[in-house]
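Appendix B. Extra example for self-study. Work through it before the problem class; the solution is given directly after the inputs so you can check yourself.
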Amino acid sequence: MATAAIEIENLSKDYPFGFLNLKKRTSLEGLTMSVENGEVFGFLGPNGAGKSTTIKLLVGLIFPTAGTARILGKSISDISMHADIGYLPEQPYFYDYLTAAELLDYFARFHNLTAQDRKSRVERMLKRVGLETAGKIQLRKYSKGMLQRVGLAQAILHDPKVVILDEPMSGLDPVGRREVRDIILELKQAGKTVLFSTHILPDAEMLCDRVGVIVGGKLRGVGAPDEIVGMKAQAMEVFFEYDGAEAGLLCLLKKSTQTGKRYRLQLPEAELYAALQQLGIAGAKVLSVTQVKATLEEYFMHLVEADRAQAPAVEVSGK
Amino acid sequence: MSRVGIVALNTFREAVRDRVLYNLVFFALVMIAASILVGQISIDIESMVIVTLGLTAISVIGLLIAVFIGVGLVSKEMDKRTLYALLAKPVRRWEFLLGKFGGLVLTLAVNTIAMAVGLFLAMSLIKRSGEHLEGAVLVAVYFILLKLALVVALALLFSCYTTPLLSILSTAGLYIAGLFVMEMRAVQSGTISPALGALLRWLSYVLPNFGNFDVMAAAAHGRAIPRALIAQNTAYAVLYCAVVLAAAAAIFTRRNLK
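Solution. Structure tokens for the complete assembly:
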């Protein structure tokens, strides 16, 4: 039986706080999910939802209060697992007294690569992230976007099977974002598994085989972007031009958004035929009729608002 | 190269690039000034003055580096989050800690050796020192290095769980208390309450005994230092460092890096 690249079972993380640490704040609650081999998985959620907590648990920077996780079949507490993963921290910061080439060489040493192999990989990676001319400049002189690129280079330098990226598009200009997207797609083509968290939903929609939405420390939905947005009822949009004041059309005009003589009307698919008939009778000129496709953003906002309506994003309780 | 060695060499590189070794210029100036001035002092004590001054400067400069850089070894990496990417590599936390310790001790060793060379140069300028004096100064320098390694281990321990300011205060406090270990042990039971006496005796065995590493007076007078003391201090420093580093590793291995 094929094992998923990342398997997470009932993973929870509480942080103690307050006097004598008697209170706890739950950052992640019973997360169970998996990321298949060769899959690009997007981890979505608002700030403080638990995305970075999950990622830090996976790479061993923090330890779970409960639950287990395995990467490539190995427990996350097994240090040998780290040889097969690449990790880009959120808002990465590196030793600023090193040049990018020195930093990459330093990290490569932990993977037992020969000096020649390290040299060629470092050159290749710097070129891949567009830093070939800046490789010999100390990192203290790098911009945020350049540091993000160095971070990406160190994450994939040793050709890991699983790449975990925490907000990889953060701090990048449109060109940089495009390049990161290309790298993620290249990794996918090379059969790598990629898990990344992001706030930029169109990127997730474009890149991911599946996404998981986490809100308030709980996983609220997992699936292919098309699938999960399909859960939301869809609508039709009619774009028309009208210059009259027909009484029978007043109801529709009130529901529409007007720009000069042009109106944009959204209505359920079931009401479309009747509305078109009314518009025809009134002499309106129908310019277009399109299906309104729910976006991942709408789905995301729907979950966030539902969570806010139900409960606070984090639970606070005495021990 | 081992993972500990990789981290250690990078820590050394950091110290060099952060111009830590620039203190050598200050030391060189002190020694040059002392060599000039000491010539005007009585001929019988010029060696003693230069050795005392040189060893004190080596010790004080080393202590400042050990404490102020030592307390930032881990906390700075956590604050700046530079260790996040590193700990995702196949490196254990205790290996990282040991590497940081080794890197700073290596920096201090290079620094101390360079200063010792400066001291010997100054001694050669005023000359008339015998073999005993040079041998004793070498041992005194070695003891300073052992003491500095112990201070680095303590600073690293505090750096794993508290703020840099508290780490500095705790390390400095322990250092000062450690200078008076023999006095604590020598307190007569009749002069204080039995409970306090017992507490002082217990503390005198738990606290690092920094007084043992001070052979400055013997070195300045050119008295030979017994081999047994060299072996004893070496074993003491190695064991004490091992215990402190094990405690640091136990804390750091369980620490959540938020």
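Self-check: The two ends of chain A are 42 Å apart (CA to CA). If your reasoning did not lead you there, revisit section 3.
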